[in-house]
Structures
1.
Amino acid sequence: QVQLVESGGGLVQAGGSLRLSCTASGRTFSSYAMGWFRQAPGKEREFVAAINWSGGGTYYVESVKGRFTISRDNTKNTVYLQMNSLKPEDTAVYYCAATYSGYPAGEYHYWGQGTQVTVSS
């Protein structure tokens, strides 16, 4: 099993930045691709970004390209999502997830509890 815990969410004004972190434990972190998803009130869960096991490959949903950056540090068992130029439509609960076969936007097998990101206008 893999346990994932997100942190770094909060309230920010439009145009601001946040950095989300996700720490993993339980299994070998470096063997999994990692992803970030988000779910806004009344909407379906949406894929945001993913990074492969080595960190050499990344993938983003079109709406965040150029604004968000996913990265990972396997020595710290941590994946990050740097979010810049935030917009009110980015408001959602953000979830960290791990997959052993679904990179970049397929089925993810382990999920964190989520962290709230609220962008005010």
2.
Amino acid sequence: DVQLVESGGGSVQAGGSLRLSCEVSGDTSGTYCMGWFRQAPGKEREGVGYVEARVRPTSYGAAAKGRFTISRDNSEKMLYLQMNNLKTEDAGVYYCATGEDEPFCSGAPPKVFRYWGRGTQVTVS
């Protein structure tokens, strides 16, 4: 099994920045694709960013608008999301996920990811 633990969430003023981290442990086979997702109350979970292993190509959901950067440290099994110029609409619970069951990574919907962290709360005032 794979365990994912997010950290780095908190309360920030609009225009501020946060860096989220996700630590991966356990059986890391099948973690080629990793992603950050977020979910606000009453809304569906949406993809924020995706990164693959090796060459580590990245992709982003439309909401990122160039403000977020996803990165991955494979040697330390860490996933990061640097969020800059945060807006109120960025608030929500942010999750990291891996183990998708589709032959693609970029833009993969939440339902195809097998493993999830418990999330870290981001609030923007």
